[in-house]
Amino acid sequence: MRAKRAFFLGHWSISLLLGFGLNFSVAFGNERIVTLSPHLTEMIFDLNRGHQLVGVSRYSDYPPAALDLPIVGDALQINLELIIELEPDQILIWQGGSPRSVSKLEEMGYAVFRHELQGLESIGAGYRLLGRLIGAAPEGEYVAKEFEEGIAQLRSRFGTLPAKKVFLQIASDQLFTVSDAHYMGQAIEICGAENVFKAMPVEVAVVSLESVILTDPDVVVIVSENFGASKWRDRWRGYVPRAQVRGMNADLLSRPARRILKGIEQLCGVIHLVDT
Description:
single chain, 276 residues, alpha/beta, Rossmann fold, 2 domains, seven-stranded mixed β-sheet, 13 strands, 22% strand
């Protein structure tokens, strides 16, 4: 007979099947780990536990060592047979981007850890909690403090510059943007700027061209892997001629792990036209 228990640790929700009288042969620090989000892959490497990874999600391309690992799926679906073959002890998922088939893994008895991302603050907290879960508490505390100090330094460095109104376009072809409840929206505030859609009732949404024009932004930032090919780069110059139109690397700003510090620094430099 097996009993299912649920534990809740801050922004991490853990569902775990425990067997009565089971003699655990796997100790923290030696577990085989599968990640189902690229940012979770990065977090494991940041905690110096990359050697425990046996499978990762599609687009897990950083650090380069992640490219050598088997791909077990993405936000839409997972390869259940491959995961079973890899025999993971722990499966880490992002609460907001998990395929429905994850529930099947839980039914089969796998330990599934959900990262419930709630803004920039939850990134540092996530490192602490993940560190405790995988037997890397000192590393988790170290990275968390480094991240939190990095945020404070960026706020001090850019927060006193002249405020600018910013429209952050997070897709090359569509007008997706974020509110200040989203970590990318919070990054704008750290740069001492104002997100023109900060008060949206949802974290991510498509907005109309007319609504962007009405906000009269000082800066339009297109977060893209290929800013030069974005059709909106030239369009904005016609629609909001007063605004500066700039681009930045999507990879650095879109993944909520330690590396986003470089992304926020780059964003601040793009908004204020300063070298970073």
